[in-house]
Specification:
The protein is α/β, with parallel strands linked by helices and 203 residues long. The protein has helices spanning 26-42, 61-65, 73-82, 100-106, 122-125, 132-141, 143-150, 158-164, 176-189, 192-202; strands at residues 2-7, 10-15, 45-50, 54-56, 87-92, 95-97, 109-112, 117-119, 156-157, 169-170.
Length: 203
């Protein structure tokens, strides 16, 4: 249910469980963590996307009830993505929710389709978000809009996300992967020390 393709140094990781809104089990999350760790020394570019019309609904419902919603695996995953020395892009093919937010926030760029929606209903569900998620969200959109999402449990659409600065571009679904590949090209062609050095200067 986690697919990995590699082409010219670009790793494209696809969450492929569309019948369950690409919700994530512990096994799937552990696979994602391992892929991100492997990518640190091997990938020249890294893309996260989903199949179907939803990027990810977050934790699988049954797994969430068993404790996955508050597991540290989400933090390990976002940390592994954030530490990658190459350009990382979340290709948001649709809505993302809950813990899946952390994966997208850990990426350098977020490219979304027009129908994507964003929500992180931890206040309603009664537990804290992963520690790094509010920090990264606040750095992108500021404290008040972060509270709008995390405390007021507001669902925002792609246009609002772009206006807030949460996503960097909005493209039609058929242009999503071609756009992402185009954005990754300069990084793929660069020497590793230049790629990593520029990323460090931007962080």
């Amino acid at each position: 249910m986690i697919e990995l393709s590699k082409s010219e140094g670009l790793w494209v990781v696809t969450i492929n469980r569309p019948d369950k809104a690409n919700s994530l089990t512990l096994d799937m999350l552990e696979q994602l963590v391992q892929i991100a760790l492997d990518a640190k020394d091997q990938a020249n570019g890294f893309v996260l996307t989903g199949s179907g019309k939803v990027f990810s609904a977050g934790a699988d419902l049954d797994a969430a009830k068993a404790g996955l919603a508050t597991s540290d695996v989400w933090e390990r995953l976002s940390g592994a993505i954030a530490e990658l020395p190459c350009l990382t892009i979340a290709a948001l093919n649709g809505t993302l929710a809950g813990g899946a937010f952390g994966m997208a926030l850990a990426c350098d760029l977020r490219i979304a389709v027009p129908h994507a929606k964003f929500f992180y209903p931890v206040m309603k569900l009664g537990f804290l978000p992963q520690p790094s998620d509010p920090v990264r969200l606040r750095s992108l959109i500021g404290p008040s809009k972060t509270k709008l999402i995390l405390m007021a449990s507001q669902k925002i659409d792609a246009a609002q996300a772009y206006q807030f600065g949460l996503v960097d571009m909005i493209v039609e679904i058929e242009e999503l992967i071609p756009t992402v590949r185009s954005l990754a090209e300069p990084s793929l062609a660069a020497r590793p020390e230049i790629r990593a050095g520029i990323k460090a200067l931007c962080t």
